Amino acid sequence: MGWVESLQKAINYMEERILEDLSMESIAKQANTSEFHFQRTFAILTDVSVGEYLRRRRLSLAAQELSNTDHKIIDLAYKYGYDTPEAFSKAFRRQHGITPSEARKNIGKLNCYNRLVIQVNLKGAEPMRYKIVERDSFQVAGIKREFSLKNEENLKGIPKMWDEVNGDGTVGKLAELNNGEIKGILGVCVDKRLTQSEPSIDYWVATEHIGDASEDFLTLEIPASKWGVFEVHGPMPGAMPKVWKQIFSEWFPSNQYEHAGTPELEVYSDEDPSSPDLYSEIWIPLK
Questions:
Q1: CA neighbours within 13 Å on the CB side: how many for 184?
Q2: Which positions fall inside the HTH araC/xylS-type domain (predicted)?
Q3: Fold assignment, 130-286
Q4: Mean pLDDT across the stretch 146-161?
């Protein structure tokens, strides 16, 4: 089964159990991947997190029931996973712009999201510049933080971490420490599913460094791998997500490679992040 079919299988699984308390582990299992890689791929392709997709779909179905049945609002609140009618009403209004009572009376318009079907763009109209690189293991030095995948805490925490290291001088210190082949500051994701039961990742802001690092930084060995190194051109934050989407929606479906499951890298330069000529890279381990 191809990865697109696997992803659709996971989406179908969510839809068939839309009223259940689904875990990221059980969803990712349908796609035969880890929680982290499923969550990341899903968000890249759809521009929405798994949790937000489930919330949107449940509130869309709840709106349909309000319009077409005489079920009590309190019963629908519990049915669609809300502990109180007040919590349900607040979430309903946030999505639809009207209250459940107004929806029942057909006052106002509803903002409903349909069941998701993954479609992959194989046209390749916009060229992608990349190279395949084989490297032995190498060391990076930097700081790391652990982020839980529950409630998608990593999606909230990683941007905050970057704000902090850009503001407290850490990035500058790492730039001075860089003496390896990869020039720049690295964002490194390490999936920890094989070492502990709770789904989480270590996220590193680091740089390639040969030798002992200063006491301010930890070190991590990146395993030997074949890498797909993709060029990213343009200002942040928009340029990087655009290339990630191209990789998953165009490059992987039309190539024989799969993600190796080991740490992946984003490489940032010390240039002006708003520059239209900014150059960055995405390194993906391949098998």
A1: 19
A2: 8-106
A3: Multidrug-efflux Transporter 1 Regulator Bmrr; Chain A (3.20.80)
A4: 81
Which tokens sit at 42? Answer: 């899903």
Neighbours of 163 (CB within 10 A): 10
Residue 17 has pLDDT above 90, yes or no: yes
Question: For the whole model, what pTM was predicted?
Answer: 0.78
Strand, helix or coil for residue 201: strand
State which amino acid sits at residue 234: G
Q: How far apart are CA 170 and CA 80, in angstroms?
A: 45
Average pLDDT, rounded, for the chain: 87
Query: Average pLDDT for residues 101-111, to the nearest whole number?
Result: 88
Could you give the CA distance from residue 51 to residue 39 in angstroms, rounded to a whole number? 9
Encoding tokens for residue 200?
């989480």
3-class secondary-structure state, position 240 = helix
Quote the CA–CA distance of 50 and 29 in Å, as a whole number: 14
Q: Under DSSP, is residue 146 helix (H, G, I), strand (E, B) or coil?
A: strand
Q: With the CA atoms of 56, 61, 67 and 70 taken in that order, what torsion angle do they form, in degrees rounded to the nearest 10? A: -130
Query: Is domain 3-104 annotated with CATH 3.40.120.10?
Result: no
**Measuring CA to CA, which residue among 101, 117, 116, 90 is closest to residue 63?**
101
Burial (CB count <10 Å: 0-12, 13-18, 19+), residue 180: middle
